[in-house]
Design goal:
- By secondary structure, the chain is an alpha+beta fold.
- The mean pLDDT is about 90.
- It has twelve helices and 20 strands.
Length: about 475
């Protein structure tokens, strides 16, 4: 029986229902409502701030790692060490035009302007399962911040919708510092259409502040010479910045993509996040823990950022079925305390040894959300076996990683019943998605909101679902 409580002062179910009924932020998506934001301590928020700077430093070091690997240069300053296999991993399965674009001189130093890691709250602190540079939820989190502002005031992380919306605009407009009011096109592909409503809401909020921001389908962008134009309510406008909301694996269905790739050296049209697939591969987290690259990361990252990443990134390995010479072993998880020499050996792992997650690294239609995720300890042996064999079979074009599973701890939070008649204390597990915005002028990373996804405790893999509660976060101490 669900223990319920009398309604108390907070966001009423009626107010939440009315707010979300006024506009759709996601197509055909529903979730649970709560009278209050999810609580975080000052110590947790301090660590989340450090994680944001560490992620930014990681992107910068990752770019250098990739380019030096691709160019056959030494990765270290004081001794010769080359690792061409790093670029080979990150380029696997990518079209040559995209690889050339990512390596071009015009793209040097181009990093994502919005950074969103996925952080699981565990008994030992945070575990970062991935970093997303094309994140959804910006509009939703800003909306929730505004909705709960009257309840929590300045204690709300991000302190309302306005701060997050303004930070999003600053990050994009900083790409064209010479323009006082640039025309920004948020371009949403068909594959990402679920997120178009929240992007429309975000653009509408910015227009109300006098900014030139609109949402377009890729087919609405028209290359003309060295510029890209759009029809803005009957007026032909030149686009100053593109906010890319399409996945790079979907380039064949994005009509503007060829122009942006082929004009890499002549067109000064900023695209954010940049079309650099090596920045969107989950295997980068496995490279962080790779034993051959430890000296590189220590040398290339600030000490504080290295310590933060070393603490929060779970041990991860690239599933590469390359044949080994006799006596050699894989850089992978142990089996019965011993190193493995063939990835197929993992099919023999017992349930206790299967606290591992297998997921595709990137550049594939199943690489986002939880589509490709298999948790070994929550799967049958047949499902686990199939996941490993699929990873091996697909390795020629799409690499997978295997990652140590850090189980989110149980928490409790008040949530409304579906009909809003009462509040009950929901036992669940939480994923935090902090949104960091990079000011291109100052090269500073700023936290402007945290989206908490509270799933029922029986769900091992946390993602947005109808039984989950999506909440902003508030500092409680």
């Amino acid at each position: 029986m669900t223990e319920t409580f009398e309604p108390f002062e907070g966001l009423s179910h009626q107010a939440a229902l009315a707010a979300f009924s006024d506009q759709s932020l996601f197509e055909n998506k529903t979730w649970r409502y709560s009278p209050e934001a999810f609580p975080l301590t000052g110590a947790q928020l301090k660590e989340i701030d450090l994680i944001g700077q560490a992620c930014f430093d990681f992107y910068r070091a990752q770019e250098t790692l990739y380019l030096r690997s691709a160019e056959g240069k030494s990765l270290l300053r004081n001794r010769e060490f080359k690792a061409p296999w790093v670029a080979q991993y990150l380029d696997r399965g990518k079209p040559i035009e995209l690889i050339q674009h990512a390596r071009s001189q015009a793209q040097r130093g181009s990093l994502p302007m919005v950074i969103r890691p996925d952080l699981l709250i565990t008994e030992d602190g945070f575990a970062m399962s991935e970093i997303d540079s094309v994140p959804g939820g910006i509009g939703l989190t800003a909306f929730l911040n505004g909705l709960y502002r009257d309840i929590h005031g300045e204690a709300l992380v991000g302190a309302g919708a306005q701060n997050m919306i303004a930070a999003f605009y600053r990050a994009l407009s900083s790409r064209v510092p010479a323009q006082s009011n640039p025309f920004i096109a948020i371009v949403v592909s068909d594959e990402a259409a679920t997120y178009r409503p929240e992007m429309n809401w975000l653009a509408q909020q910015l227009r109300q502040r006098g900014h030139l921001v609109r949402v377009f389908h890729p087919d609405e962008l028209r290359p003309q010479g060295d510029v890209v134009c759009v029809d803005d309510a009957g007026e032909l406008r030149v686009v100053d910045v593109i906010y890319r909301f399409w996945e790079l694996f979907d380039l064949a269905n994005v009509s503007i993509a060829d122009f942006l790739l082929q004009a890499r050296g002549t067109v000064a049209l900023p695209v954010s996040p940049p079309m650099r697939p090596f920045q969107e591969e989950k295997l980068s987290l496995a490279l962080f823990h790779h034993h051959m690259l430890q000296d590189y990361w220590r040398e290339s990252l600030p000490k504080k950022s290295y310590r933060v990443l070393n603490k929060v990134i779970p041990r991860s390995w690239v599933i590469d079925p390359l044949a080994l010479p006799p006596g050699a072993v894989l850089d992978g998880p142990l089996l019965s305390g011993q190193p493995i020499y063939d990835w197929k050996q993992l099919t023999l792992a017992g349930k206790k040894e299967r606290d591992l997650i297998i997921k595709i690294s990137g550049f594939h239609e199943s690489a986002w959300g939880a589509r490709s995720v298999t948790l070994g300890s929550d799967s049958s042996r047949a499902e686990w076996d199939a996941a490993i064999r699929q990873a091996i079979t697909m390795a020629d074009t799409s690499l997978h990683i295997v990652q140590t599973y850090h189980k989110p701890k149980r928490v409790q939070h008040p949530v409304y019943l579906q009909d809003g008649s009462a509040i009950y204390s929901m036992q669940g597990r939480v994923r935090l998605c902090p949104y960091y915005f990079v000011d291109g002028k100052q090269q500073q990373v700023e936290l402007h909101g945290v989206l908490a996804t509270l799933c029922p405790a029986d769900k091992k893999i946390i993602h947005g679902m109808k039984d989950a509660a999506l909440l902003p976060c508030v500092q409680v101490d």
